[in-house]
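User: Just a sanity check before I run the rest of the batch. Below are the structure tokens for the first item. I only need the designed sequence back.
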């Protein structure tokens, strides 16, 4: 995929070999052997990434790669110990680690999950045990909140969700007094029906939703993509986020909105207050809102500045890159 972009943009390429997986010499030398000659001509060099230990121990291997590829080496990058604190880029980044003993919030790991960094601030909360529920696993019985995240295919992931038996688990979770939050595609799944008359996500037709919110969604061809400044109705706190979705949702529960955007209702809340849907991504990056939302679930957290914490990690990463890579050489390629 990245080579396709490089060809289209006509920009030089630097290959990154992952030594942590093993066989980095074979990765890089072998990649050149199987690449199309036109693609090889675009490669300006390589980086050896995720080295554990003293990089000087890999000097012979580094020179071997240079001599057998003809590519310039831009450095050996040691393992960055704070990498787990960086924003998530894919489903692997938000995979569950060991339980921390905090209050459990469960997120369904849908097959087409999107917008992974929605969960980063929750994962970083010391009092929260964020559990990614994988295919074949049951929703934890001690979960205080279950999140249905965004999806690249709402109807497809509804079928996937039912195949795992999560619809049954959600019903049991609510009977126990738990809460459910659907974000974007997850919000659409919570309603009675998702209609796709034009076949935007696949074959045209309707798919029954979970029926946990009294709303219905109709898929529309125009994607809604914008940054949003809103007010959380329950707390009155400001919320910053963004929308990126197709489809419009409507129904009686929309009369109890999650937020107000320019005075207009956004999202929906069930009459008992335990099921909420919203199209807004990035909600939990707002420190005051996150604290208020968690407090509403009985989860009381110490004040944190998530954005400042991320900036500090990014600064540390920049220092790490500058210390171990030929940054001037890389910048020269970009000019």
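Assistant: Here's the designed sequence for the first item:
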């Amino acid at each position: 995929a990245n080579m396709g972009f490089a060809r289209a943009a006509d920009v030089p390429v630097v290959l990154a070999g992952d030594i942590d997986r093993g066989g980095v010499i074979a990765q890089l030398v072998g990649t050149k052997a199987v690449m199309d000659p036109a693609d090889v001509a675009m490669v300006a060099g390589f980086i050896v990434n995720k080295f554990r230990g003293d990089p000087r121990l890999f000097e012979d291997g580094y020179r071997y790669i240079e001599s057998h590829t003809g590519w310039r080496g831009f450095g050996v990058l040691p393992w960055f110990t704070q990498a787990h604190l960086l924003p998530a880029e894919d489903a692997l980044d938000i995979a569950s680690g060991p339980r921390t003993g905090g209050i459990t919030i469960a997120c369904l790991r849908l097959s087409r999950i999107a917008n992974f960094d929605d969960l980063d601030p929750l994962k970083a909360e010391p009092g929260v045990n964020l559990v990614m529920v994988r295919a074949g696993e049951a929703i934890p019985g001690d979960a205080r909140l279950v999140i249905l995240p965004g999806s690249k295919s709402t109807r497809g992931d509804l079928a996937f969700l039912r195949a795992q038996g999560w619809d049954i688990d959600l019903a049991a979770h609510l009977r126990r007094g738990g809460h459910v939050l659907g974000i974007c595609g997850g919000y659409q799944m919570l309603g009675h029906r998702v209609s796709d008359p034009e076949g935007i996500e696949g074959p045209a037709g309707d798919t029954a939703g979970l029926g946990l919110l009294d709303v219905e969604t109709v898929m529309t061809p125009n994607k809604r993509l914008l940054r949003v400044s809103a007010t959380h109705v329950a707390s009155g706190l400001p919320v910053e986020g963004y929308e990126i979705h197709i489809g419009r949702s409507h129904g009686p529960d929309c009369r109890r909105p999650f937020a107000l955007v320019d005075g207009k209702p956004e999202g929906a809340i069930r009459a008992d207050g335990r099921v909420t849907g919203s199209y807004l991504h990035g909600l939990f990056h707002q420190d005051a809102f996150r604290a208020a939302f968690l407090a509403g679930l009985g989860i009381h957290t110490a004040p944190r500045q998530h954005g400042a914490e991320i900036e500090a990690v990014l600064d540390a990463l920049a220092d790490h890159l500058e210390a171990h890579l030929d940054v001037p050489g890389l910048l020269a390629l970009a000019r």
